């Protein structure tokens, strides 16, 4: 189509001068709304005010300025339809072939905690959305520009094609406009939903923004990308972290980093977690970050090789030196930050710095709040649930008395088990895991493998199970191998038999009354 007339009405003026000058140089007539028209004229670009063009002033403090038949008719008219030609001729409507619109910054306004409800509502764009939808609908005869990042390439293509636009380009720009208006409407819907929150509405709308393409997915033959939820989100996360060093993250890296960060994020003491295939293979709390790392690594040195590491405190020189010792190798390390000496050591290690990614997540705030539910895809649908953010506030000791160290270790082991695939068993001692097993199809096998991976001497060790023991065999097996303190949810029809076995075997038994299945 040939562009002869354009309507420009933009909230964000970025890049619009260059576009308007390019259009004017091709003798394209410009129409603009009040503030946009003023801005163009102040910068030497000739334009006609929409109010002068329509013969009707902007009213209601700018709420009504582009909702007029002379504009919408000019945008929606199809010259191939005789009835449309008859109408535009009868009403002296001059077709518009280009609409340049970006919307009021509603998302930005509602993200500001200082914004009032009146501020938010006033930034709900009506006319702009209508213009975009109208021009996108009639893409065969009218081009719409809704993204300032498209201005330069569009102007260049228009100049190359001597004022004409290819239909394929117009179609793509229309698609982008509908994506924009859809996301905009969803932001408004979610804003209004704040006052009457509904966890699982009849229709669930979800919008995301692509953060980056990934090299591939779980396997090289699978394409992948990572998306983020829009709006302000200060929750400490992988997608909000800054990559300081190393090549692009992979799909699997991101999953493992998310798992490792989840373990350390809510721990108050210096903590480290090493993850392999989304499951912890070592975790620890200690007096220093270096101690926490060494304890976590020593839980399972074989599995930790090539793993993903997360800390809840900054990484210092001594920790970095421990990490590059012979026998260690890690794919990625995430921490609130790295001091200069640590960064120098980790980025210049000759053995494996080329393959190491370093991520800085910033200060981990215990008061940060997740802004979205946990969403997983299944064939032809989604599963949505609240995050498992419940931690151990209270528990019931059903056999024995706990000392201070046992209570600390039980709570720590229970916390780590929460982030392991069920069926999960975590054996810990002195604030560090020493035997882990996850993902088995029965609990007794998980218990056996966890004990097999632990040191022979389990004196002083505690054991956590993410789900209840259905039979007393697990209690007896654990005690046989030296475990003297166990924490588990309870809820089995055989709870009484489990309690009796604990009493008979003289093992301390704690019931949490909540479980932590993770599939």
Write up this protein.
Helices cover 37% and strands 19% of the residues. The chain is elongated. It has helices spanning 16-25, 34-42, 50-54, 69-76, 82-90, 106-111, 117-122, 127-137, 151-160, 167-193, 251-265, 289-299, 301-304, 317-323, 340-348, 404-417, 443-453, 473-480, 495-505; strands at 5-10, 29-32, 48-49, 98-102, 143-145, 209-214, 224-228, 242-245, 271-276, 279-285, 307-311, 330-335, 357-360, 374-378, 381-385, 396-399, 425-429, 432-437, 462-465, 485-488, 508-511. The chain is built from 19 helices and 21 strands. With 519 residues, the chain is an alpha/beta fold. The strands form five sheets. The chain has a six-stranded mixed beta sheet, with helices on both faces. It has a six-stranded mixed beta sheet with strand order 16-21-20-19-17-18, with helices on both faces. The longest helix is centred in the middle third of the chain and has 27 residues, at 167-193. The chain has three domains: 5-193, Methylglyoxal synthase-like domain (Rossmann fold), CATH 3.40.50; 239-360, AICAR transformylase, duplication domain (Cytidine Deaminase, domain 2, 3-Layer(aba) Sandwich); 396-511, Cytidine Deaminase, domain 2, CATH 3.40.140.20. Helix 2 (34-42) links the parallel strand 2 (29-32) and strand 3 (48-49).
CATH topology of the largest domain: Rossmann fold
Q: What separation lies between the terminal Cα atoms?
A: 54 Å
Shape label:
elongated
Q: What is the number of helices?
A: 19
What is the CATH-assigned architecture of the largest domain?
Answer: 3-Layer(aba) Sandwich
- Rg, Cα atoms, Å: 31 Å
């Amino acid at each position: 189509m040939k562009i002869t007339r354009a309507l420009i009405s933009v909230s964000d003026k970025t890049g619009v001068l260059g576009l308007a000058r390019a259009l004017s140089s091709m003798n394209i007539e410009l129409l603009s709304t009040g503030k946009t028209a003023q801005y163009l004229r102040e910068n030497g670009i000739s334009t006609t005010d929409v109010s002068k063009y329509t013969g009707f002033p902007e009213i209601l403090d700018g709420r009504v300025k582009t909702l007029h038949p002379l504009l919408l008719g000019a945008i929606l008219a199809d010259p191939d339809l005789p009835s449309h030609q008859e109408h535009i001729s009868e009403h002296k409507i001059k077709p518009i072939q280009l609409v340049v619109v970006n919307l009021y910054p509603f998302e930005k306004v509602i993200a500001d905690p200082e914004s009032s409800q009146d501020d938010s509502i006033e930034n709900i764009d009506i006319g702009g959305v209508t213009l975009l939808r109208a021009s996108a609908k009639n893409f065969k005869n009218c081009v719409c520009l809704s993204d300032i990042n498209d201005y330069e390439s569009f102007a260049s293509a228009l100049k190359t094609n001597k004022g004409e636009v290819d239909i394929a380009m117009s179609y793509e720009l229309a698609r982008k406009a509908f994506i924009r208006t859809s996301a905009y409407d969803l932001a408004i819907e979610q804003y209004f939903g704040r006052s009457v929150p509904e966890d699982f509405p009849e229709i669930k709308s979800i919008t995301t923004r692509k953060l980056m393409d990934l090299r591939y997915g779980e396997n090289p033959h699978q394409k992948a990308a990572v998306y983020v939820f829009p709006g302000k989100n200060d929750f400490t996360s992988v997608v909000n972290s800054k990559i300081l060093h190393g090549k692009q993250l992979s799909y699997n890296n991101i999953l493992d980093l998310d798992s490792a960060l989840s373990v350390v994020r809510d721990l108050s003491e210096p903590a480290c977690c090493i993850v392999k295939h989304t499951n912890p293979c070592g975790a620890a709390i200690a007096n220093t970050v270096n101690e926490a790392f060494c304890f976590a690594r020593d839980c399972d040195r074989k599995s930790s090789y090539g793993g993903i590491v997360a800390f809840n405190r900054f990484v210092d020189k001594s920790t970095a030196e421990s990490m590059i010792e012979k026998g260690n190798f890690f794919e990625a390390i995430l921490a609130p930050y790295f001091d200069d000496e640590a960064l120098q050591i980790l980025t210049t290690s000759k053995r494996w710095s080329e393959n190491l990614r370093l991520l800085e997540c910033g200060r981990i705030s215990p008061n940060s709040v997740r802004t979205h539910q946990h969403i997983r895809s299944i064939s032809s649908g989604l599963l949505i649930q609240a995050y498992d953010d419940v931690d151990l506030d209270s528990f019931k000791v059903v056999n024995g008395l706990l000392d201070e160290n046992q209570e600390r270790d039980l709570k720590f082991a229970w916390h780590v088990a929460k982030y392991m695939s069920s069926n999960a068993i975590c054996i810990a001692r002195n604030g560090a895991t020493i035997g882990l097993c996850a993902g088995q199809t029965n609990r007794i096998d998980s218990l056996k493998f966890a004990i097999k991976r632990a040191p022979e001497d389990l004196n002083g060790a505690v054991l956590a199970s993410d789900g209840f023991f259905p039979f007393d065999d697990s209690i007896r097996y654990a005690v046989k191998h030296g475990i003297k303190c166990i924490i588990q949810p309870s809820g089995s029809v055989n709870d009484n038999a489990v309690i009796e076995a604990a009493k008979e075997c003289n093992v301390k038994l704690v019931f949490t009354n909540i479980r932590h299945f993770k599939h």
